[in-house]
Automatic annotation (TrEMBL):
This is SDR family oxidoreductase. The lineage of its organism: Bacteria, Bacillati, Actinomycetota, Actinomycetes, Propionibacteriales. SUPFAM superfamilies: NAD(P)-binding Rossmann-fold domains. Keywords: NAD, Oxidoreductase. It comes from Nocardioides pocheonensis. Gene3D superfamilies: NAD(P)-binding Rossmann-like Domain. Pfam families: adh_short_C2. Belongs to the short-chain dehydrogenases/reductases (SDR) family.
Amino acid sequence: MTSAPAGEYDGLVAIVTGGASGIGAAIAQELHDRGATVAVLDLDPAGAPDGTHGFAVDVTDDAAVRRAVDQVVADHGRLDVVVNNAGIGATGTVEDNSDDQWRAVLEVNVLGVVRVSRAALPYLRRSPAAAIVNVGSIAASAGLPNRALYSASKGAVQALTLAMAADHVRDGVRVNGVNPGTVDTPFVERLLASADEPDVERVRLEARQPHQRLVTPQEVAGAVAYLAGPAAASTVGAVLAVDGGMAGLRPHPQ
Ligand code: NAD
C-alpha cells in the first residue's frame, strides 16, 4: 500500500539495500509504486517486492557491492537514488560485546553504507535527481540502555550522513537520513523473541514512544521517498525522526 504521489519517480533508478524485509521492503515497494525502477541488494533477495529486481549481495563484500551497482547501471542505464537501509541489531553493554561482535556489526551498519555509497557516487553524479538516504535509528541519540554497539553504529551513520551531505552537495547529490523509532518488522520480532517476557517487552516498546505504538515500515518508507524525491530538492543533511516523538519530545508526555 503506497502513500503515492504515483509517477513522482518515473524514469528514475533506485537501489535499496536490505530491501527484502521489513523497512527496506516497504521502501522498495514505495519507490516502485511512485514509478522508480528499483534494485534490491540483500543477503537474501527472495523477499524483494514484486516488480523490483533482486540481487544477492552482502554489503560487507566490497567486490560484490561494486559488481551489483555496476550491473544495475548496465541494466537500466542510470542510477539516481540509493537507500542505505541494510542493518543488523545488537544488544548489550560495552562489557557484553566482544571486539569481533563490534567489528561484525560495524561492518554492516557503517561500512556497508560506505561501500554502497562509494560504488554508487560516480553514477549518482551523472543524475539530475541524485539522492542518498541513510537509515539510522533513534538509538543514535536516545541513550538507550543495553544497546551500546548498535547505538554507536547508528551514531556513526548519522555523522556519516552529515559528512556525506557536505562532501557531495556541490556535485548535485543530496544526502539525508531517517532515524526510525521502534518499527514493527522481523528485526523487532527477533528482539522480542529473545526477551524474557516478550509480551511485556512489546508493551514497553510501544509505551516508550510518545504516540504509544510501534512505527510502521510504511511510515518510514514515506519519509525516505520524500527525502529522496523532487519535493525535497532543497533538503540536504537532514535526519528526519520517524519515531512518534521519541527523540523530539523531552520529557515525553505521559
Ligand atoms: P530486517 O531484519 O527486517 O531487514 C533487514 C534486511 O537487511 C534483511 O532483508 C537482511 O537480509 C538485510 N541484510 C542484513 N545484513 C545484510 C548484509 N550484510 N548485506 C545485505 N543485506 C543485509 O530489519 P528492519 O527492521 O527492516 O531494519 C532495517 C534498517 O532499519 C536497519 O538498518 C535497522 O538498523 C534500521 N532500524 C530498524 C528499526 C526497527 O525497530 N525495526 C528501528 C530503527 C532502525
